[in-house]
Amino acid sequence: MSTAITASHIERNPELLGQTVVVIGGSAGIGLETARRASAEGAKLILTGRTPERLERAASEVHALSTSAFDATDPALLEQFFRDLPPSIDHIMVTAGRPSYGRLIDQDCAHVRRALNEHVLLFIEVARNAADKVRAGGTLIFMGGTGSRRPGVGFGIASTVTVALPALTANLALELAPVRVNLIAAGFVNTQLSASLLGDELENRRSQLRAKLPIRRVVQPADVAALAVHITTNTALTGATYDVDGGQQFVAA
User: Fold this and answer.
1) Which residue of 45, 182, 215, 224 is 20 to 30 Å from 245, comparing CA positions?
2) Which domains does the chain have, with CATH numbers?
């Protein structure tokens, strides 16, 4: 007697079906990859970015509901963007901004203010404007880093921001509850931004990371996007910092 085993396909509903996700900085890199993954999970997307042409290409790829091209670090423009949003947003992710390097004693106050504005002050402004737009149980997700947790010459601003953001996230989680607020701290991620920062040293850096990281590969935008979507769907997560760096902070990499 033979027994026939039939494999049944178990279907699941998309986890973000019908939900609206805003990605500030969603035209490239981690932001765009998160938009792709959220779209695959059924989300309706609203994307922002600084470059209109690149933003429109991204929006077309993920079938975004709408786009808005502006500098998110401009408080007036950011406030106008939020004012024009629909009344009930489910999730907002902020990936705008870039790291700032250089010796503190060589930088003028204007540069330091701009660097802090692109991270700490931007997150505060987003939280303030999002307070009456995000539904209860929805999420704010901010992007930070792990690479500058160790002090070093040329890392003064980056280290300050890296240390400040987890405390800011925890406090905002209490102030905005029941809206959830979380921080993703990434190490080196294989993006266009990383390529622009490293230039000719990019491939050397990739090779170094492949050799030294415990995961023996370079972290990709998809790795971060997977975590971001998980944070939106797991309603027990708030006030926390989630590292996604392949173990970079634990090795001399």
Assistant:
1) 45
2) 20-246 (3.40.50.720)
User: What per-residue confidence (pLDDT) applies to 153?
Assistant: 78
Whole-prediction pTM: 0.89
Percentage above 70 pLDDT, the chain: 92
Does the pLDDT of residue 81 top 90, yes or no?
Answer: yes
So what's the pLDDT on residue 240?
98
d(CA 118, CA 116): 5
Query: Is the sign of the CA dihedral 235, 238, 243, 244 positive or negative?
Result: positive
Listing DSSP states for the chain in one string gives: -----PPPP-----TTTT-EEEEET-SSHHHHHHHHHHHHTT-EEEEEES-HHHHHHHHHHHT-SEEEES-TT-HHHHHHHHHHS-S-EEEEEE-------S-GGGS-HHHHHHHHIIIIIHHHHHHHHHTTTEEEEEEEEEEEESTTSS--TT-HHHHHHHHHHHHHHHHHHHHHTTSEEEEEEE----SHHHHHHHGGGHHHHHHHHHHHSTTSS---HHHHHHHHHHHHH-TT--S-EEEESTTGGGTT-
Q: Which tokens in the block code for residue 230?
A: 């998980």
Q: What is the rounded distance in angstroms from the CA atom of residue 237 to the CA atom of residue 181?
A: 8
Q: Which residue has the tokens 């931004």?
A: 193
pLDDT of 3 strictly over 60: no
Contact between 99 and 29 under an 8 Å Cβ cutoff? The reply is no
Is the pLDDT at 167 greater than 90? The verdict is yes
